[in-house]
Amino acid sequence: MGKVTVGQENSDLINIHYEDHGSGRPVVLIHGYPLDGQSWEKQERVLLQAGYRVITYDRRGFGKSSHPTTGYDYNTLADDLKALLDHLDLREVDLVGFSMGTGEITRYLGRHGSERVRKAVLMGAIPPFLLQTADNPDGVDGKVFDAIKESIVHDRPAYLKEFLDNFYNVDVYRGTRISDAAWQNSFVVATLASPYAEYACVDAWLTDFRADLPHFDMPTLLIHGEADRILPYPNTAARLPGLIRDLTFVTIEDGPHNVAWTHPEEVNRALLDFLAR
């Protein structure tokens, strides 16, 4: 357990909480919204068993990291990742991001380059550009995100319940791939996150990553659930082949957004095979 200071808001330091376990080649796991670093438990265990050094951290506003009211743009979030890599002096690192975490990796590469990075893994990807615009007709209508922000302001816990139901496709997988207890755990983690962060992060989802994608100059693995309701497959993952040069693409048939939890056997097999090459 450790922390790295990445800034200051008024009288308080802004600290990023991280955990650093194992030995061997380092793998950094970057969690999705609205969870924290512990959400990687089904991947951390197998990576440690395979001989990797595994680093998880909590995004600012989430988990045990500071909860400031600044910095929920991808430039700052990527700088937080850089601060962690620099603090631990990680080299030849494999970066693994889920959901919002895929944005940190993409903007980090575009902003800071790939000198420290060996491989990248994008799971439930947010790039290339989620917002529908005149030059991005395959994006999602901006009214969807306006409604999300309104829902968070009106009743954040109710919004988080609906979000997590779609995060796991509970109507399909309840009692088989997602238990009530596991769902409740995610709900508790989500409600304990910063209300400000959960609202502000919605704007970050609309970041245009298209200019960052050419900076993927390392082997990259993309894993995405075919039935993803949070970051729909046609608007995100299906558009990345051809935009990332050395891309291995694994589609989880009927998989929801958080396939790392619901389909760990398929995800872990693909992850370990890719990292071992």
From TrEMBL:
InterPro entries: AB_hydrolase, AB_hydrolase_1, AB_hydrolase_fold, Epox_hydrolase-like. Residues 26-264 form the AB hydrolase-1 domain. GO terms for molecular function: peroxidase activity. Keywords: Oxidoreductase, Peroxidase. Belongs to the AB hydrolase superfamily. Bacterial non-heme haloperoxidase / perhydrolase family. This is Arylesterase. It comes from Acrocarpospora corrugata.
